[in-house]
Amino acid sequence: MNSRLRAVRAPRSLLASFAILVSLALPALASAKGPAGLPANTSLLFSLNAKGGRLEPVGTPRRGLYTLTLRGVDKEVTWFADRPHRDAGLLAAPRLFGDWGRLGFRKSPPNAALVVSGARAGEDTMALALRLRHYDGRDHTATFSARALGSVGGGLRDLEHRLDRTVPARFHAASLFIDNGEFYFGCTEGRPELMAVEAGSLREHFQEAEGYLPAEGQAVPINNFEALYALIGDLFEPEEELIPSTTNFHLPALKGPAGTSWYMCSNGWFPEEGELGEGLIGEVAYFPPWIAANRADGTWLPADGRTVQASEIPVYAAEYGEGAASIALPNVPSLDGMTPMVDVASQSISDVAVGQVRMFVGHPQNSGVTGWAPANGETLSASQFPSLANIVAGGLASAAATITLPSVPSPAPGVDYYVAETGYWPLHQL
Question: What number of other Cβ atoms are within 10 A of residue 61's Cβ?
Answer without folding.
Answer: 13
